[in-house]
Amino acid sequence: MTVVSTHPAWRRLALGLLASAALLLGGCAAMRAQNPDSPLAPVRASAIGADPHVMLDGHDVVAYFTENRHAMGQPQFKSQHQGVSFHFASAAHKTLFDATPQKYLPQYGGFCASGIAYAIPWGGDADTWRIIDGKLYIFGGAGSRDAFLLDVPGNRKLADGYWANEVAGSNSFWQRSKRLVLRVPHYATGAELAQRVAAARAAKP
Fold first, then answer.
1. Which residues of 23-36 are buried (b: 16+ CB within 10 A; e: fewer)?
2. Phi, psi at residue 49, to the nearest 5°?
3. Cβ of 175: how many Cβ atoms within 10 Å?
4. Structure confidence at residue 13 (pLDDT)
5. How far is CA 164 from CA 48, 103, 151, in A?
6. Which of 83, 38, 26, 86 is nearest to 61 (CA)?
7. What predicted TM-score, i.e. pTM, was given to this entire model?
8. Does residue 17 contact residue 25 with C-beta atoms inside 8 Å?
9. Residue 11 pLDDT
10. Can you spell out the DSSP letters for 165-198?
11. How far is CA 36 from CA 71, 97, 186, in A?
């Protein structure tokens, strides 16, 4: 039977090796897609066909605002903004974006807003979202969204700070690996966040 030391130094080393392995297994294509040479980087993007940096796997960022839903865009309705491609469901949506792109850009490069509150650029499911104060926030799932919504002002303050001071301009894979090992003081696991959400719901009259 293999015994793994629980000493913090050994644990940190083991986690570092695991993070490095995850980085290598993540694939060069995903790394390139999320880290374009752009002021927007890193972004929750993927390569689609010959297009190396397509935001949110091609989902239409305008539809969240105009139709209150997520919708898949089409390559024939495409705009380039600061080196990142955006697909739209219609020519009308493309026109709206081209006029004021900043209005429609997802916060934190489209990564899970809850993850950025821990300085981790990870996740970002186009079908799990919320518009707050006129800005689009994407989440890595319903659990992440519900945890973020428990304290919107506090979580936004954390995420804004980490994005501005640490995540923006970084390589998403290196940043993710670093912060999965060197965790922020307020880090909470998915299970812990689920418990908080359940407790908050149980406390409601």
1. eeeeeeeeeebbbb
2. 60, -130
3. 21
4. 53
5. 28, 18, 20
6. 86
7. 0.87
8. no
9. 53
10. IIITTS-HHHHHHHHHHS--TT---HHHHHHHHH
11. 24, 20, 30
| Cβ 70 vs Cβ 127: under 8 Å | yes
Q: Are 31 and 173 a contacting pair, CB within 8 Å?
A: yes
Structure token pair of residue 42: 């890193």
Which two tokens mark 78?
Answer: 């495409």
Reading the block at residue 61, the tokens are 């960022």
- Alpha-helix runs per DSSP H in the chain: 8-26, 28-34, 63-66, 91-99, 101-104, 113-116, 142-149, 152-162, 172-181, 190-203
Instruction: Give the pLDDT means over successive 10-residue stretches in the chain (205 positions).
Output: 46 51 57 95 96 97 98 98 98 98 98 98 97 98 97 98 98 95 96 96 90
Query: What are the tokens at 10?
Result: 């050994």
Give the whole-angstrom CA distance, residue 190 versus residue 85: 31
Helix (H, G, I), strand (E, B) or coil at 205: coil
